[in-house]
Amino acid sequence: MHQLTKNLAPTKPLSVLDISMAIILAMGVFVASFSWAEKLQVASEFLVPLEMKYSTKIKGMDVELTQRLVKNENGQFAETIVAKGVLGKVTEKGLFHLSQNGHVIPDSFTKKQKTIIGKRFEFQEYDWQAKKLNFSFKEGTGSIGLLSGYQDTMTHKQQLRLDLASGLKDIYYTVIKKGKIEDYRYQVIGNEVLATNIGELNTTILLRKDIIEGKESADIQSKIWLASDWDFVMMKFETYDKDKVTTMKFTQGTLDGRPITPLETKTETETEI
Questions:
Q1: Which helix (H) or strand (E) holds 162?
Q2: pLDDT digits 0-9 by tens, 26-73
Q3: Which of 7, 112, 164, 195 has its Cβ near the most Cβ atoms within 10 Å?
Q4: Strands (DSSP E) along 138-221, which ranges?
Q5: What is the DSSP string of 62-103?
Q6: In contact, 252 and 260? CB cutoff 8 Å
Q7: Distance CA 46, CA 48 (A)
Q8: How many CA atoms lie within 13 A of 91 on its CB side?
Q9: Cis peptide bond upstream of 10, omega within 30
Q10: Mapping DSSP to helix (H, G, I), strand (E, B) and coil, where does residue 194 land?
């Protein structure tokens, strides 16, 4: 089982990916030269079971979110996100597997929404052999061609964790949402010791922008704080819609069965734009 260990100053749990990268680099071998089997093993050991809880407000009302990630006996990963509030409930579920070189490959995505204004659903099924995505939602059904690297709204965030752990700082993803192709850019802008519900944690800060018709939007869609000592799980998330800001914050969680704990010795805050 994947275990996190601690350094004394600062207190920082090391993931299996951290240890694997250190060993490889000490041997003078770059990550790019990993064999497929090595990349698959490192990615598989990195994506350990997790359960994270968050809170936010929608229309001034409290909403609680729970995110879970598990690995099934067949090697497939299952991620669920459930949001509950007085206005209703939204459930998202994604199934994915890892390619031979350790990249996240989506298999299906389901979203069910039941609120005071009615019910909605989305479904995407990936047929990689036929290179076709079948989708359906309330407004209609259809299919589009698949290209290597395509993600959905859930799986690209797991791939983001892997890419950050590999040292990438400027990353592009092609994401399929309701049968439409969208392009996102994530850019690391710095680090911050973030005050959370459980105490202070080292975080990596990213901005997300949309790429529209080959051009990057001037507007920032979201800002994200990921716990750099805890395999880049999300600590804080802000979305921007005109003058409206919606903030989601981490409240508690476990990674591979181990409760996420705050820093005992914090590092200096550093942000660069």
A1: helix 155-165
A2: 434 344 445 656 777 878 889 999 999 999 998 889 999 999 999 999
A3: 164
A4: 140-145, 151-152, 170-177, 180-196, 199-212, 215-216
A5: EEEEEEEEEE-TTS-EEEEEEEEETTEEEEEEEEEEE-TTS-
A6: yes
A7: 6
A8: 5
A9: yes
A10: strand
